[in-house]
Amino acid sequence: MLTAYSLTLTVTSNRWMIKRFRRSNHPRAFSAAKALRNLQQVLLTLPKEDEVLPSLVVLQENDELWEKLDEGLDYEGPWWTLAAIMLIVMILLPKYMPMAKISPKSEGDRIRKAVKIANKCLYVATETGEPERVQGIRAITINTADHDVVYEDQQVTDAFEAASISEFKKEKSGKEPRTTADVIEWCTLGNCQDNNQVYEFLSIYVRSALLALFLQWGTTGTAIIALYLTPTRGFGCHSASFLLYGILATVVWVLFVTSSGLAHSYTASKERGRPAKYIGPLVLIFRQLGKTIAAFNTAWIILSSLFQFSNVYDNASVFGLSVFGLGNKAYAVLHLMDEDIKLTKLYWASGMIIASGTALVFISTINLLMKQPEPRIRI
Fold first, then answer.
1. What is the model's pTM?
2. Which keywords accompany this UniProt record (predicted)?
3. Taking a C-beta distance cutoff of 8 angstroms, is the pair 182, 125 a contact?
């Protein structure tokens, strides 16, 4: 479930980012959208200097930087991704196919090289109005440690939106922003700040959660129902094993999402100079607990599948476990009647159809949510 949530969150946040960029008719907005899309799965940091980001947006001298960055990040995934598709089991297929289509960049050395080359082309506005190429400041920094990057996309899109709004100043005065003060003012939204951003962020997380829950329980749930209806009817070893897997997968997702939210809150409190000391340990506890349960759940579903294919669950020694589902009506199946066989085939076929339909709906929804950067035609 965590994989499905991560995938959906990537797609929905990418859609939000590109929609924000499309509000801007700035000539460099398309290049920035392509770069940030390719850096979705990368922990990046923007410079703290106030004039650097506005300089990236406004100064024509930084066109080379955007071109170098786009060129360095514009590559196909490694060849083994095609071979991996053949090894993906059905439950992972709806998660892997959209991820392959998104093609997030994950080759660390190649990404760092592209960013390093682009950073060498950085120009920054100065007080004199003459842009200066700087070597000590980086336009983008790649992090290897945990880092909250929620704010980075918002900063860039806000800057481009503000620059687009400020275009009328150029048309009215004919003056290009060149000094440090000019470019900062040019890329500041001020009172034009979008008041709906909280709603937009909440919408992203809610949609991602609902789609992840839909895929998780649309596939696992049908397996549980099919096994529940298979003689012996009721919760037994087969159905309970999948139920446990689904519950633990959901618990892992809740723990990691909670940990992420607490980490964001902790980062915000540190930036305000008042770090909440009790949040840090909670982040680590939830994260480690989630990892532990996820490892156990992975081992459990593999072991459960082995038990099922080796007929361990059909052994009389585990008959007592079906008592949890049937109580004093529990029984063991020694021989299936023809009617039972027909019904079992019907239940399993129906389960396969529903699970496949769930996966198809998920893939279709992801494809509908995907959005590619498009250049704006300036008239």
1. 0.73
2. Membrane, Transmembrane, Transmembrane helix
3. yes
